[in-house]
Amino acid sequence: MADFVHLSAAGVSLVLDFRGPSLPAVVHWGEALGDLGPEELAELALATEPQPIGFSADTPVRVSILPEQSAGWLGHPGLAGHRDGTAWSSAFTVRGVDRSALGVRVRGFDETAGLELVIEIELHPAGVLRARARLTSTAPGTYWLDHLTLFLPVPAETTELLDFTGHHLRERSPQRTAFTHGLRVRENRTGRTGYDSPYLLCAGTAGFGNRHGRVWGVHTAFSGNSRTVAERNYHGHSALGGGELLLPGEIGLREGGSYTTPWVFAAFGAHGLDSVSERFHSYMRSRPGHPTRPRPVVVNTWEAVYFDHDLGRLTELAKAAATVGAERFVLDDGWFGSRRDDTSGLGDWTVSPDVWPDGLDPLIGVVRDLGMAFGLWVEPEMINPDSDLARAHPDWIMAAGDRLPPTARSQQVLDLHNPSAYGYVRDRLDALLSEHDIGYLKWDHNRDLVDAGHPASGRAGVHDQTHAVYRLLDELRARHPGVEIESCSSGGGRVDLEILARTDRIWASDCIDAHERVAIQRWTSLLVPLELIGSHVGAPRSHTTHRELPLDMRAGTAIWGHLGIEWDLTRATPGELARLGEWVALYKEVRSLLHTGTLVHGDVADPAYSLTGVVSESDALFAVTATATSEAYPPGAVALPGLDPARLYHVRPQPPGDVPDGNAAAWGAALPWCTPAGLRLTGRALGTAGLRLPVLYPDRVLLIRVTPTGEPT
């Protein structure tokens, strides 16, 4: 076995140290080191080894990817558990290292504790690192696992942390803290990915931004309870880690039993957050199941009609949707059982004869005849106490023994770890997809998991429930491979890379107020590429904030994702429909660019403005968005990032986002470059000197089209 393994891809190096019998340590994770031979790797390890001063052992503590106290590490342990009070401290010895196409598979044993550990470490072609571990009990009795967390070291130059918080209607709100000595643990106990999720925990150099600074980020890819960790100690060791948060007694491993952690994804960016995003987006787009067809324009009925389902009304809505260019029509909540409001019917997945006496096929026929695909809303993991299913099977409701959890949104959680409950839901969804021409499911999940146990045993059940949902999605996808699925969870409450391994887009937020969506979509796209982010044009007055916004702001924000419309178009004026049609036409023109190009963001000094763009070799589109009034009048210039410095570009405003209400022309003084003819400048000039920003009223968008005019010079 080699002393060192050096993995390298896309400008990133990972060097693993296998000297000695213990688990591997990470010598380097960051910028590519070039082609280093065995002797040079040994010299690198020597160059970075600390003095034997201040440690809890006579020699420097070698901190592995799974830190162990037996090695002298007194920080956060990678493994915590016990076997009836013993085997509480592990001491794994490596017995084998297998190379794979993307990385290594490390096998370790602790004969005393009766444990086997297999760690998989991969470096993908995009430079994205991912790791997971499998723990197996090899001794009699039960090993009770508390947590299993993998760590990746980051250098001392990382002095700031960026992670995220939020709530319903305000998901993925950024927060920065100093990366100081001690342990920062973000725990999610909601039973889903959660609003208050760290999402992507980033450590970076002082003041790192969109386009500057060195950044290291980790994401725990799990849709249940999770833990994400940052730790820095006085020995000069700093690390980021992640894993599942296990409730007491969830994982008890008998002899031969195994537990596998979620994947922990990680990326390094040498040039700010955009370089981290680019790696994650490239990785996502390289997946075999990643959507490749043009992302269709969606019309969703929720904010248009809510529970008021009527064939005539929905037919008129479908006609209006087709008129503006919609390509998919999604019937939201209210089509099944007794579901006339949100207090009853969940679990009764049969078409309501009261609302749909002739079934769904008449509406599906209208939608298909108008040239659109049909989609349907479901919430399979939940159950209303007021439902036929709950009355027939109260034992299928998750509970801590005989004590029912408090209801939320008048619903409880269906125990999908129960084979009978699982089979019922699977068969009902399978029947719906088999009996109707349904090409899309909006899969919702509208409450946290409180006291979520298996009622028969009383054991905690979030881990089992999460994996049952994964199995259910996998099975339905296998039976209906052409059906796309959206992950929705009270808006953006279930957004992670593991749910996205089984779904085709996420619903970023129930708030479609464009003012709020500027930030929600920007930070969601830090990890998730635009084509997977549902983004809708709402009504003139937002249903969630009551803010009134012009159509160009609503549509000009919504195109930066997977475009949809959630507005009662039967009440729109002819002028509004015509203008919306122009925006839909633009989206169709540029969606191949937006959904395959490189997402970039300007480091705009003026907090009133933001700059977002997508750049490819042959095209680029930028949006200048104002969400407040500027301190400067007129405002300054902003660089256009991501362009080829050696190429000449044609720069001009892009209709219909070329004349936002309130641009400089509205004041009788047109911005000189902002004309249909535009100007021609090199990518170097545009990326350095930039363009002067226009005066904009708050909540306005200006689109800029940038196309190369010739070959690089």
From TrEMBL:
Uppermost EC category: hydrolase
Signal peptide: none
Catalytic activity: Hydrolysis of terminal, non-reducing alpha-D-galactose residues in alpha-D-galactosides, including galactose oligosaccharides, galactomannans and galactolipids
Pfam families per UniProt: Glyco_hydro_36N, Melibiase
Matches recorded under Gene3D superfamilies: Aldolase class I, alpha-galactosidase from lactobacil brevis
Alphabetically ordered keywords of this record: Glycosidase, Hydrolase
Name of the protein described by the UniProt record: alpha-galactosidase
